[in-house]
User: What shape does this take?
Amino acid sequence: MKNISIYLCLLSLSLFSCASLSEKNKEINGKRTDTIGLEYPILTEGEIYKIDSTENYYLIYLKDKTTKYKIISPKEDNSICEKVKVNETFSFNLKNITNKENIPKSNKAFMPVNYLIMERCLKVKNNEKICAEGDIDLYKSANLNGLCYKTSR
Assistant: This one.
């Protein structure tokens, strides 16, 4: 009887340790490895703290525990949907689309460049320019259609 109980304890211990090991393997240096190769590799949950718009796009400002995001979503006429609102929390699948071509290469030993003060803009529909703001990069989301939130599949 003792052998059976010892065997069951060892079996359950090994199952739990394997499960926790697989969860740890999903992160390397704080980054999720299970999102590598996805079109929208950034998975985050955060609070919308501001919504703005241009002529053709909505600008949704999101913050999670460590990062702020400026999400660009083309204006769509969708009246029946779950609309995102300020001070509400949503989960998003994001892709960074900040134009980093304007950031000059620098010789850090002699002339470091602060890329936060460089213009980092995208030209979108009708020659409209949408720019990153300070340390807030531009993103697009698989979860937005205008201001309509759609859950991930």
